[in-house]
Every structure is written in C-alpha cells, then in structure tokens.
Fold these 2 entries.
Entry 1:
Amino acid sequence: MKNEALATVLVAENTALKSKVLQLETLVKFYEEQFRLSKKRQFGQSSEKTEYDQHRLDMDDSQPDENIRPAEEPALERVKEHSRKKRTRKDSLPEDLPVEEIVCELPPEEQACPKCGSDMHIMGRKNQRDELVVIPAKVMIRRYVTCTYACRECAQSSDHATIRSAHAPKPVITGSYASPGSVAYAA
C-alpha cells in the first residue's frame, strides 16, 4: 500500500514536471525568437527588400499578348540655342550713402619679390566686397579693396612676373552686406 501511494505521488510529480518542462521549452522558444528578431532589427538590412525576388515574375510569357504593342520612340526635335544672362545681385546698396574705402595692402615685408628680392608695385585694385555699416544715427558703406602686386624686375628679366594679392578680412555673413556692427545693431 505504501508503494502504491508512493508510485501515485511519483507519477503525479512526473506529470507536473513534464508539464513544467513543456511550458519552459515553449518560453525558451519564444525568447529565442524575440532575440533573433531583435538582432535582425539591429543588424539586419534596413531597406524594404522582401524575401521574394520582385524582379522575377512568375508569368507565362510563352504566348505574347496581342493587345500590348511596343512603345514608339519619341521624335527628336532641335531647340534653338540661347545664351544666359550673367547673374547679378537683385539687391544693391543705395548710391547716396557715404563710402569709406579700406584698401587692403600687403605688409611692407611681403611687398618684396620672393624670387629676386626687388620691390613690387601695385598693378591693379579689385573691389572685394561692400558692407553696410550702421552707426546709430549714421549709416555708410565700407568698401574693401584688395591690391594686387607685380614685380617689374621679374617681368623684365623673364617671361613671367611674380604676382601677389592682399587679402580682405572675411565677412561676418558670407555673401551679405552686413558688417559686424550692423549685425550687432540688428541683434
């Protein structure tokens, strides 16, 4: 009798353990699938490609459809040539404002020719940019002009002259008329 009770208890415990093992195996499969999906989301392809080959259509092409005709090539036509206008600034500064011209020259030590050492002369000037300067109760234009230098000695003694240009200070906002003072005034 004792053995039968023990056997019944063991069978019940065995059934409960088998049920628990089945439940845990199902849970492990679920977590493995979640882990696989997580890795695919993190490291997998990020495009919208599918597992199916979209370029290969399973259509029966053995018999051509009579209603489908190949597209006709469009006729080419000649177009008259044209020239474009040079782009100009739409906005400009008023002409009646006073102009302060700042000439940007090379420092005296850089005005010597690097090849022969003789003094270089100004061979041209170029308007680099204009900026609108706002002084409270006073508005004016500050024009930066850069000087370009050439060596006369090199030009006379060889087939080319040494040329150097001074650099203007960089603007606060590239391509605008704003000066540092006008930007500070507007802010």
Note: The two ends are 100 Å apart (CA to CA).
Entry 2:
Amino acid sequence: MITKIWKDRITKQEYIYNIEEALKLEDFIYDINGNEINYEGNIRLRPAKCVIPYTKEHLKEIIKCSRNIKYFATNYIKLITLDKGLTKPNLYPFQLYELEQFVKNRFVILKCSRQTFKTSTTGIFLLHQLLFRKDITIAILANKEETAKEILRRIKIMYENLPKWLQQGIISWAQTKIECENGSRIIASSTSSSAVRGYTVNILYVDECVKGDTYVTVKNKKTGKIEIITMEELYARCKRNSRNRYEVLTENGFKDFKGIKKIKKEKYIKITFNDNSILECSFNHKIKIKPNIFKYAFELEVGDITTTNLKIIKIEKFYCEDYFYDLIDVEDGNEYITNNVTSHNCAFIPQNVWNEFYQSVYPTISSGNTSKIIISSTPKGLNQFYKFWTDALKKKNAFYPIEVFYYDIPERDEKWVEQMKKNVDDLTWRQEYECDFLGSQDTLIKIDVLLRLTYEDELQKHKLYEYLSDYKQFLHIYKDKEKNAIYSIGVDTSKMTKHSSNDSFSIQVVRIDKVPFEQVLHFYADKDFYYLDSPFIIDTIQKYYGECYIFIENNETGQEIANILAYDFGNEFVYFEKNNLPGFRTTKKTKRIGCQNLKLLIEKDKLIIKDFITLSQLSTFVKKGMSYEADDGFKDDAVMSLIASIFFMQTKDFQRFNIFENKKQLIQQISQNKIENKEFNQQIIKREESFINDFEMMSKEEILYELIYEKGYVIGKNI
C-alpha cells in the first residue's frame, strides 16, 4: 500500500521548521509612496504596480518560500476549519508528502477517503505555483462550475491571508479567475468539452468526484437502521423500489413520507452558515427560522438564525439549470432536516460530465512537455478515475499514485470509526472511507465479483482497424480470430446521428465454443456515429471472425438494421425468430432471463470480460423493480449488447448451432421426463428454495446449463 510506504519513510519531525523569523517580519499597510495598500477597496489584497519597501529579510524569506513549498505551507498558509475558524493548520505528514510529489512529478493521481483535505492541500500547491512561477495558466475543473468556483474560493482565502510582501499584485479578482501581474492566472470551470479551449494550460487540477452536499437522515422501517445519505441516493433507492422503505428525520423524530421527486430548475441559492456548512437549494426552498415559521430562500438575509441554531453568514444566487429533489408529503408538517437545517422544499445535486471532458479536453493538456495534471477523487464505481488509478498502479500511464485513508489522520481512532459506521451503510463506508471502487447499490453482478474483474489492453494492430478505418475510434479489439472458433455478436441499437443522440451504439463479440466464454471485441459509439452505417460494420466483423452468429433486438431501429443485414447484405448468420423476422424480440421475461444468464456466467467465471467500458457499465447496472437497467445518469448499452451476445442461451432452436446439440437433446429429454439424477434433483430442490435477485426461479434448462458448464457433465455419462 502506498500509504504505508511513505508512512514508514516520513515522520512529523522532518517537517518542523523554525517559524519565529517569519512571524517577526513586518507586513505593510502602506506602499513606498505612503498610499494604503488595497485592491478595489479590499485591504487584504495587493494591487498591481504597488511598490513595497522590502528589506533584505523579506527578500530572503520570499526566496526561501519559493524554493521550499513545505516551508511555505507550514509558515504562511491559513485555512478555515470547522472547529477553529480561520487558523494556521498543523498539516499532517501525508499532506506535506503530497505537496512534495506535486512539485516532483508532472502527473499525480490522488485516491482519498472523504474529509482528508485533498482540496485544501492541492489548493496550497496551486497557490504556490501562482505566486512563484511566471506566465502560467492553472485550470481548476470540477463536475460543475460552481464546484470549481468553490475550490477557487478556498485558494482566495489563503491568498488574502498571506502577508502583502509575499503576494503578487492583483490584476483580476473574479469569481472564476485570479490574474496576477507576474503573468500567471488561475481559472475555474466545469469539466465540459469547451472548458479550457482557447487557453494554454500549464497546470490542470481535476476534482472529479465531488457530489451533492445535501444530506438527509433516514431510518429503514423494517430493520431500524439509521443512515445519513444524499438526496440523490435516496431518490435512486426509492426509484428502484415501488414501496418506500424509509422514514426521514425531522425536528420531531423520524416521520414517514410518500416519495421523492426530481425537478429541473433554472436558478438556485447557495447559503453558507456559521459552522461553514452549505445548503444549495431552489429559490422557493423553505427554511425554518422560528417555530411554525418558514422563509423562502430568496427572502433570507445574512444574520438570520435557523431553528437548529445555525446563523447565515453568506447568501449567493446563481442562474443555471440543474436538478433538485423534494420529499413528498412528509408526515406531520411536510418538513425534514437537510444538512442540519429544517427544510420544506428542494435540495440541489450536481451532475457528472467526466466522460465528455476525458474524451475532449484531457488529451489536449496532457500532450504538453512541461504541463502538470493533478486528479483527485474518492472512488465511485469503475469509472474513468478507476481506469487512471489502475493504470497508474500498473505503470501503464505516467501518473504518480498517492493513496490516503481515514486512518492517516491520528484523531480518527476506533471510537471515531465506530461512530461513523453507525451513520453510514456498509457500501458507503467501504467506498468513501476505505476507498474501494464500488459503484451503485443493488447491482446485477455482486460487488465483490465486480472488484475482482480486470480490463485488458486493446490490440494496437489488427486488420479490422484497416477494414473499418473510418470507425477505428469506436473499435476495442482484444483478441484475433482463431481457427475453428465460433463467435456470437450481440447488438444494442439506437437511432444515432452524427449531430445528436442521447444514446449509444454497442456491438459485442464473444467467443462461445468453449468455456469460459471470452469477450474479444467491443464496438462502442456514443457520439459522431450514424446508425445506418452499422449493417456494414456488423457484416464486416462477422465475415472476419467467420462462424459468428448475430443477435439483434428487433425493436424499431433494430428491425431496420436486422432487415438490411439479412436481406440487403444477405448475411446468413442473422438470427431469425419463429415468425421469420430477423432479430429477436425482448420481453420482460427474456430480459430477466438474459440478465440471469449474464449474472451466472460472470459470477461463476464462465465469461471473461476484457473491456473497460463494459466493466464500468456493469458497476452501475442496477435493480429497478423486477428488472435491471442503468442507474440514473449512466448508460447500459454495453451491458445490453453483451446480454444479446448470449441470447442463444434462451432460444430452443439450436439446429443451426452444432455446438449446442448436446444441450438441445438434454432439454428435449427433460421435457419428456427421461432424466433421473440425484444431484440434478438436489439442484432443483435447492433452487426452488431461493430466488436470484428477485428474478423468477431458475428453470431446469438453466440448472442443466450450470451442471454442464460448471461441472463438466455430459449426456449418457453423468446425466
């Protein structure tokens, strides 16, 4: 573990400096001409062209700070903390180690437990670079511009509390930008494709995983378990279950509510309280300030005190579209507590646009020779951060990995852990404090199975890259064709155009003539693709791999593609249903069985997944009602095309698939009650006693499949 490596090497004593000299140095109120030092009335800032009467000691100290970031951080940085307000913090060893690595390495990736000060530590580094390097541009990118602006706000607080002789003269001091007279600047933006277009960025900080800060406390009606979760998570849980399983905390205890709704708003208000907590809400969100008295958020004033004894110290208004959440019909007054404030309306949650940033912005910045990139996150599923982190550990990229856990903070002892575990569920604890790459709850594939799956490198050279050169960017090839091998192609279609699409187009190729099955190719387009190009692509892939059966769901778009393949291209490997229509029809039952088969194959190690996109979508493919689909804000095209590729496991017409002749005979014999086998009967009894993820009970055919492929049973010998 990386944490233990530097823990064994670094002690607190290495970072103790004599701060007396720094404290004795005089700061300046007036410039060399006797004018008060201020920038547009802010006396904590030094303006451009302001000449200060430095002494030799001042100049020595500036040089010392510029050459040693740890000395600068321990002597001159002030932060706002929850317990002490504005104070000079005692930085932990891991923070000083992070600062050291930021200086030494071009690319650094941080995997951190929650509340391990990753944003503040990175902010110190960015401030140091702003002060002591000329003509550089630093970009702070987050999932939303407002989040990036909040990070910049923290840097501004550090800047304002530096002595003026250590500051650069300010040219611009805006919400999204700091510009200094040494030619350097910091900009804050969202991780959108146009975020840093037009800038030559020297240092990029991506705070990738910041989530909504609006929490509610809920209690499970059945188990009595109490949890603190975000409104987004509560919405996802309620959506996946038709019956509400929770009560929400109010000033009068836990109360029932009928549901939760998701609403898009065009503006919101950010309220900061005296304990530094923040509530972001809609303009018509109601805050309780006196017993039985609520104020709309737009009516609140600085100085107002809530019924939970929090004082409002700052109110900001923003005008941009985003989603809010609201509980419906809360028992006894329609009120509940969010972020320790009694609320009566909607709570804010930001959206994640990392993938678009990764595809469009990241390559431009990383291509420089001296640019630096810092990425920090708390794990959240098998997303792009997971891929960066995993590749860094395997030394497949240039990122230097740093891992920080909750126990790296000495105060977080066993008592603290015990208290925290009472407030969060096991998944949240493992993900946000133990840094496990867990995704959504209630996934089709068990979490521990997902964690052991790994993606593989794509082949760099392959003939299909030449045959499909216009579509090379969508191809992910992992294995070439093999002699006498048999393959299956699964297709999940959408009516994509090159200009607009809310969906993706996915083609999976799986080798199926031996167990374990093996994913060999994935074609995945989520933009800049025309769906009517797909018949040519599918036909080309099929002809290359040879005996390769094609399974296309024949919905409206799928039927069009299947018809073109079968009739215009004359492809004989397209699967036909009994009604002589090319493709297959998905029903609730066939989807449940398809999901069940996929679960069985992956969890029993009978299907090897090699593709990162597929693994990522599996981590957010969750139960909703009696079926499975992508969690809110995610996609499942790769998963559905994978399910299509194993559709042959559902069909009873195996005459065209010689490798399944034995299975066909088995099913026929089962239907005629010709098979008697002790272990088979025991399996039937076992399966009838339980359900798999609330699906229908496994059929005899599915149990036989498990016996054949897991235990190697064959007709006439074991059965």
Note: The radius of gyration is 30 Å.
